[in-house]
Amino acid sequence: MPWSKTPTWVLAGGAWLAFxxxxxxxxxxxxxxxxxxxxxTGQVTQVSLTLRDGNLLATLSAAAMVLAFFVGAVxxxxxxxxxxxxxxxxxxVAVLLIEAxxxxxxxFLAVRGSSAAFHFVALxxxxxxxxxxxxxxxxxxxxxxxxIVTDLGLFVGHVLRGxxxxxxxxxxxxxxxxxxxxxxxxxxxxxxxxxxxxTLLPAIGxxxxxxxxxxxxxxxxxx
Length: 223
Prior knowledge:
Layout: H1 8-30, H2 41-53, H3 56-79, H4 90-111, H5 116-131, E1 134-135, E2 138-139, H6 146-160, H7 167-194, H8 200-213
Antiparallel strand pairs: 1-2
């Protein structure tokens, strides 16, 4: 499908997921995790730094964040087939609701002062990123912006050398970037007011979105 014909529901869904990721990632930076939870690059670097310092406990904690994100992607991969990205695909609803459950658990743990809360946020983020990884044969990310910014720069470079611009895809990438930034800002403001309860809001939002989608979805077709 040409990117200029990307369905509105894909644009809206991608923006919503990027907003959610930006929201919880800012909570990770402001909370006890002291770093991003929706991407693994920073946590892998933490593993390297803590290994240098000989801090085994910190190394294990950072490695557990990476593992949680990985397990989340595994869960999505077990539930969703990449060819199923349609508005009626029920497996996507299942992943959204499991992701919401992870954030509810994270909220409960955060209120009790447990650092394991951020591992459940990383788990949810891995699920979400795998959910939105592929659309129309091209990669879409909602939990981290490195690829988004890289692609935007690449397309601008193409335009500068006279190539035809893929305005549909550029619009989608710009929307994801804006949504992530906006979500991060709202998450930061909310964290100052709600503290450990902050992740309850995206958990509720994902639950409402998944349940609202459920009546319109259908079971996955068997191969």
